[in-house]
Amino acid sequence: MEARLYREFFRALSNQTRFSIVQLLRERPHYVNEMAERLGIEQSRISHNLACLLNCGFVEWDWNGKNKVYRLILTSSRSSPELRSTSSNTLPPWIAARR
């Protein structure tokens, strides 16, 4: 079971666009148009990859006026030591809850 969860975790990040989005969101929350401009990627492609990251529990969003702002979901109590030592980001809740 744990191997499957880690496989899903790393599969989500193995896509270069999704990995770039996660790296960008480490800085601060962003709007889709900001991410598209910063990464030089079409907004539709950003939105498509954000849907995957949302389903995997990496990101969440809130309304800010008429626009959605996306942010990383961070948990600290259940992260692996390897991830804690290399990054301030930790396992998403869907993995942390199943460990």
Write a brief structural summary.
The chain is of the alpha+beta class and 99 residues long. It has six helices and three strands; from the N terminus they run H-H-E-H-H-E-E-H-H.
What gap, in angstroms, lies between the N and C termini?
Answer: 9 Å
> Mean pLDDT across all residues, rounded?
80
Uncertain residue ranges:
76-89
Q: Helices and strands, in N-to-C order?
A: HHEHHEEHH
Q: Please report the number of helical segments.
A: 6
SS elements, strand count: 3
What do we call the CATH topology? Arc Repressor Mutant, subunit A
Strand content: 5-15%
What is the second-level CATH architecture? Orthogonal Bundle
The helix content, as a percent range, equals 55-70%
Number of domains: 1
User: Can you tell me the CATH class?
Assistant: Mainly Alpha
Please tell me how large the radius of gyration is.
13 Å
The geometry reads as globular
Going by helix content, strand content and strand pairing, the class is: alpha+beta
Strand order of the largest sheet: 1-3-2
Protein model, in words:
There is one protein chain. This protein has a single domain, classed as Orthogonal Bundle (Arc Repressor Mutant, subunit A). Strands 1-3-2 form a three-stranded antiparallel β-sheet. It is built from six helices and three strands, in the order H-H-E-H-H-E-E-H-H. With 99 residues, the chain is of the alpha+beta class. A hairpin with a 2-residue loop joins strand 2 and strand 3. The protein is globular.
